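The records we work with from here on pair a chain with its fold. These numbers are not coordinates but entries in a learned vocabulary of local backbone shapes. To see the layout at work, look at the sequence and tokens printed below:
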Amino acid sequence: MDEIKNQPVKYMTSLTLQRTSTRNLTEEQLQALIKENSDIYDEYFDAQYLESIVENIYPTLVETYFRPKFIGFENYPTRNQPDTPLIFASNHSGMAFPWDAMVFGSGLYQLTKKSQDRFIRVLVSPALSEIKLMNPYMIEDLWKRVGGIDATSLNFETMMHNKEVDLVIYPEGVPGIGKGFNRRYQLQYFSTSFIRMALKYKTDIFPIYSINGEYINPHSYRSKVINFLSQKVGIPYIPIGFLTLLIPIFPWVFYFGMPSAFYFVLGKRIEPHKMTDKPFEEMTKEEIGAVRDKVHALMQVEITEKVKEYGQKPYRLKELFQKMKTNWKQFWTYFPMTWCLLFAEHERQYKRFEKTGQPIKINNGLGGFFVWLFNNPFFIFYFLPVIGWIPLIIRGYSGAKKPKKKKT
């Protein structure tokens, strides 16, 4: 790495950094890159789009179907460093399309938007945005437009300088998503990136425990061979289970989730900078790893306790049926088969809103399904057994032009 470290600042680029770690850069080089990279906050993020998703999709789909409960968020955590983001670290549910992350993000946005002036931004695996297929219903860059940021070393460092945000990370990474139902609350190996950032900037970590999310796709397991092959085509993992068998027959099942009743539990504050007597600059890789292992152990003990408390009724079926009965007029909104059309119709109307200013109004009554299908005819392929996958795959892997960066 010496040849990288010795490069003049003007030759250091984001592409160079992707091949190394920020630890191998001089402070001058790092600060130059952070300045160059400072537009990532607004590059794709569209606050108005996020608000529209929360207003038009969240109410019945989430509040009726997934019914999340946020435990411990009554008082939003205070920062120990006023100008430095807190780091929220969440477990992955495993072996399902990440509806839990979407529900958590939109729910936390609702909880915090009126009570404090910090946005929550999520560092996500770049694999979720590399191909359209990994965005919900192939809506291009949806993860990034609602606030997701690629989890690279440079992006993490850059966001640690942003006073307006707190950060959510998933330290188990892709292996956490694909760990299998049998390992559902066994925290996988943590990366050290969030520990390094917490130590370097002396900021605290708050665990967030996602409970019951693995029941979105229950009793699904991993195959190293199949996952290896799927990653070659840009899909991080393919779960092996009953629902997997239905995917070729019913394409809409690719994004399907069972009506798991989510709990998102805020854990106890963790202070990594108090777990060592050394300044960050003097710590070795092994010493940082030791702090990481302590944090991992603390979170494993706490999540085991929270599962015993909140993970005994993963579906809360009586509550589910009561919610469906109460909201029966919005049946199509929370019926999983039609989610593809719900998202498509919202996207169509949002593009119209950007051009004309015409308000978004989703027809979610009994006739809504047919209106949505008429307005978005391509999405009929989600309902065609087997052959429907042909145009979907073509669209999913097509190279579309990226949206232009937003002007600040």
Observations:
- The radius of gyration is 22 Å.
- The first helix runs from residue 2 to 5.
- The CA atoms of residues 108 and 120 lie 8 Å apart.
